[in-house]
Specification:
The protein has 235 residues and is an alpha/beta fold. The chain contains seven helices and seven strands; from the N terminus they run ααββββαβαβαααβ.
């Protein structure tokens, strides 16, 4: 049996039923962001749908694919080499994954290949967001950058999932933690600041309506549709 990676260990700790893990989940402050209520969510699912990078999540209605062999993951594989036939899926979710892969164009080519004609792909990527290794962190994206990866797929919706206030809050928390020399102090700062600052996140319900939200938006999204006449891979 191969040794677990640090990423697998992290996901197992998060899902643990032990008292320490339960206490940690109770004390964990609310997320410093709100989801954009105008982001579309109703594009149709099919009989087979793929969720790329779903370790640690419950993704009902999807085949859950990730690099980590942890509970809830159905298929362990690299997104640059998806182990599925051409045109298998009606919908593909790729949520906060492209920043972690070495070759995002190859991942997009694979999504295009396994997506059925007429099917939908949903991409979410960070723009102004702190460095985070899961297991590596290579890049950030603007909406224009994501569109460059879309290839022959049609853009049917675009926008910002999390907004400028989320960017400010996560940067402030990380900045304060950077000033502290000990891990315990950083943990306490994360909890205290998280609880103190999270009410400000609701400002994004207003700011996400601004056309200037893209200046320091936190995460952006695209919905893509594979043309009905397109079949196979674009490679």
């Amino acid at each position: 049996m191969r040794p677990e990676s640090s990423l697998e260990q992290m996901y197992r700790r998060r899902a643990s039923g032990g008292w320490r893990a339960r206490l940690r989940r109770v004390l964990e402050p609310p997320a410093p962001y709100v989801m954009n209520p105008d982001e579309p969510k109703d594009y149709p699912l099919g009989r087979w749908n793929l969720y790329i990078g779903g370790a640690g999540r419950l993704v009902k209605g999807y085949v859950n694919l990730d690099l980590c062999e942890v509970p809830g993951v159905d298929v362990v594989a690299d997104a640059e080499r998806l182990p599925f036939g051409t045109g298998t899926f009606q919908r593909v979710e790729c949520d906060a994954v492209l920043e972690h892969v070495r070759n995002p164009a190859q991942v997009m080519a694979e999504i295009d290949r396994v997506l059925a004609p007429g099917g939908y792909s949903h991409l979410v990527t960070p723009f102004c967001h702190p460095f985070h290794e899961y297991p590596k962190d290579y890049r950030r994206f603007t909406l224009d950058g994501l569109k460059e990866l879309a290839g022959p797929m049609e853009v049917v919706a675009e926008g910002w999932r999390t907004g400028p206030t989320a960017t400010v809050l996560v940067v402030v928390i990380e900045y304060v933690k950077l000033l502290l020399p000990f891990a315990l102090w950083r943990m306490l700062a994360h909890w205290v600041l998280g609880w103190l600052l999270f009410p400000l996140r609701y400002l994004d319900l207003l700011l996400l309506r601004s056309p200037r939200a893209n200046r320091i938006g936190n995460h952006c999204y695209l919905w893509l549709r594979k043309p009905v006449g397109q079949a196979g891979s674009r490679l």
